[in-house]
Design goal:
Radius of gyration: 18 Å
Shape: elongated
Number of strands: 12
Distance between the termini: 25 Å
Order of helices and strands: EHEHEHEEHEEEEHEHHEE
Helix content: 25-40%
Number of helices: 7
Number of domains: 2
CATH topology of the largest domain: Rossmann fold
Oligomer: single chain
CATH class of the largest domain: Alpha Beta
CATH architecture of the largest domain: 3-Layer(aba) Sandwich
Strand order of the largest sheet: 2-1-3-4-5
Length: about 220
């Protein structure tokens, strides 16, 4: 299981964002859209690799990039009519408003770690350990037998420990690629909670973040 790069697209206009996200998905990059008024909250919950901020007369892209950098430490790609990248405000790259998908993808990959480096490495968070090489999961030292789908889902959540995994990101799981992704994801989260002994109605390990997705919090040792 790979941890794909995540791009937060911040744009007050919905037009074009859906097609951009779909195009990036095809290039191995997950993208989630947010309105400028919700940008900082979404960034804090999702912790994307980078944000794409559009500068508009209604919202200063530079000010928003500065807020994201100050509050979350997340770098921004600024799309505007300007001609140069501004330093020191969290802006790491500058694109024209008429940017190409390939340009965005290239920058995101540059700012993101190679996902292949973690694909086969055992992941340990708190009392939970998952080893992709042996398909073994242990919680507090006790082996937990998981079906393939729950194993893949847990691996994805563990690779993003402390960050929200959205339905869009869950699309990288082959069994989750259909029109009912949120429902399918919710069902398997329920199965996984039960197998881990997590509270179904007041979970401590796999927590639902309303309207965004699910976050795995490390179980105490």
């Amino acid at each position: 299981m790979q941890a794909r790069p995540l791009l937060l697209i911040i744009d007050p206009h919905a037009a074009g964002v859906t097609s951009l996200a779909a195009a990036l998905q095809g290039q191995g990059i997950d993208a989630v859209a947010a309105h400028p008024t919700d940008a900082v909250a979404h960034a804090a919950a999702l912790l994307p690799n980078v944000a794409l901020v559009t500068d508009t007369p209604q919202c200063s892209g530079m000010a928003l990039a500065h807020a994201l950098h100050t509050r979350t430490g997340i770098p921004s790609i600024l799309a505007s009519t300007g001609t140069g990248a501004a330093a020191g405000l969290g802006v790491v790259a500058h694109l024209p408003l008429s940017y190409q998908v390939a340009d965005v993808a290239a920058i995101v990959r540059t700012l993101s770690p190679d996902p292949g480096q973690r694909r086969h490495i055992a992941v340990e968070v708190g009392a939970l350990r998952l080893d992709p090489a042996t398909a073994e999961v242990r919680l507090h030292g006790r082996r937990i037998d998981l079906p393939s789908r729950e194993f893949q889902l847990l691996h994805l959540l563990m690779l993003h420990t402390g960050r929200v995994v959205t339905p869009t990101q869950a699309n990288q799981l082959s069994w989750c690629r259909d029109s009912q992704v949120p429902d399918v994801l919710a069902a398997h989260v329920g199965y996984l909670r039960a197998r881990l002994g997590d509270h179904l109605h007041d979970p401590n390990i796999i927590v639902a973040v309303r309207t965004l997705g699910y976050r795995l919090d490390p179980p105490h040792r």
